[in-house]
């Protein structure tokens, strides 16, 4: 049915006088509300159109007649087909311009989907009022006619009868927009095309389908009624604006049914699942399985189609159970002086879900360990508390510890839980006495002693102490562990150290005046233990070394200028037994002072030069007397080998080779002899090699002589044992 107001702007609401049988949609489509049999007589009812603003109402009587039974051949005779006439047009002054007199609004054609035919099924007849004077041809264009999907609608070109050729499916195409044309036999357009809209009326031919067959959701245990859990969604391919596509949800079953068979409810329109009862307890029921049903036709159980899905709701854990110790007192023991040792395992029980913050336990000590010698670690797998020693414990000081410990979860307890948030217990730890190593006091021990202490002298006493006061042991025994210069010995009973050699500060084993020796103290416990101690001897210097000249050799020119030689005094002693030094030449032989003179230029340095104008080239031994500043003084006479040579204007020697040859030393002669011997050995080896090579060449020539049969000849060699060639 259609209603058209004069101004075209009214908002109309349609109503039916028989609402239990017929319903009129907002688009004017009339639906049957129930299934019933029509009598042979026409059924009448009234359709009202009411203005929503002014409440003005218009009424129209509808007469509903059952379709008579027919066959395809007699359908035209038994049923009147609606006609659609092209809007007429008026021509003025034979002008080719046309003026449309009026324009029709052709109502859509409503065609139910899934019709069983027979096909082709006539819909309407399209006609032009000019067909009385002209021979016209009719056609339709658009999707469903000459465009994909083609061939659904056909038209008789002579009569204009529009028909459908197959059942329609609203879920594929909800409406078709066709255009009807009228032309003469020459193909000239005689009418403007008219638009025809064919609406496919929805039938309830699709069941609801859930987006997932299994839905997973979670809800915390202890949730209050009304807590949102999850949303399930189903879709229906039918028209969502009609009852065929309007879905309603409901919960069919709940498993398990504890503590109540109705722990959840669902919003029948949105699919939201919420809790409706209290008592969710993960420790009792960890998971609920709901069967959800979606039904179309707004949930009508008689006419609606339905489908089901499964909703799995896991009850998540909250911290509603604190950890509880399995015993009031735990016991452990630890040997003294041991660290990183687990001395006790603290076990707890927690009903919450394992390996979650509500189950993981944290341990802390609340008393009994003021010095922080213990810590408690948590085993991540078993949740046990591992009491561990982190600082050494001395049995002689503490023989037992009594610790107070507490356990609580990583997260606080949920609100409203009546249990205490933590559990407490006592840990009794016994310390075991073990044999400990002796230790020297002090360590290291420093002794200051002048060098030169004679062998057999008592130096000091170096003793150790045994920390095991409660063990019955004999006295300690001492021995020497390290003595680089082998200067010392220790009495094994009383630890008295005496010298076995003279202490020398200038020894290579003394570094920065300090000599280090290591000694060992051992007990007779089980097992035996020992400790080491270091004796540091700081040696004080005495003037026990005379200074020496450096360098031992020098070169100068025959003439006075330039002929100065710089020399240095070297003394192993240190201040005040070293420099400044005094330099002088001896009185004998007399030629020394006659030819040479020496002058001190600083505390450690002096300058030797010729006293005479010319001294013949050669090598001279010049004795020099050097005296240090010690008390008493120490002096020595050092020989300086001076090579006197002819020099150029720059002071460089020009006859060094002659001087060196004249003064060839023993070392040089030995070196020359060694070179000669090596050269002779090389020559001898070369001769032997050449002789052997000649013999091998002769043997090869004999073996390959073509005139001799090698198999019939015996080759005789002068030397025993053939070489590698005799194969």
TrEMBL record:
Compartment(s) of residence: Cell junction, Adherens junction; Cell junction, Desmosome; Cell membrane, Sarcolemma; Cell membrane
Gene Ontology CC: adherens junction; apical part of cell; catenin complex; cell surface; cytoplasm; desmosome; intercalated disc; lamellipodium
PROSITE patterns: CADHERIN_1, CADHERIN_2
Biological process annotations from GO: adherens junction organization; calcium-dependent cell-cell adhesion via plasma membrane cell adhesion molecules; cell migration; cell morphogenesis; cell-cell adhesion mediated by cadherin; cell-cell junction assembly; homophilic cell adhesion via plasma membrane adhesion molecules; synapse assembly
Keyword Mitochondrion attributed: no
GO molecular function, one term: beta-catenin binding
Domain named Cadherin: residues: 103-210, 211-325, 326-440, 441-549, 548-654
Gene3D superfamilies in the record: Cadherins
Pfam family membership, one: Cadherin_pro
InterPro entries, sorted: Cadherin, Cadherin-like_dom, Cadherin-like_sf, Cadherin_CS, Cadherin_pro_dom
Domain of life, source organism: Eukaryota
Keyword Isomerase: no
Protein name: CADH2 protein
Record membrane topology: Single-pass type I membrane protein
Segments crossing the lipid bilayer: 668-690
Alphabetical keyword list: Calcium, Cell adhesion, Cell junction, Cell membrane, Glycoprotein, Membrane, Metal-binding, Repeat, Signal, Transmembrane, Transmembrane helix
Main location class: other
Matching PANTHER family: CADHERIN-2, CADHERIN-23
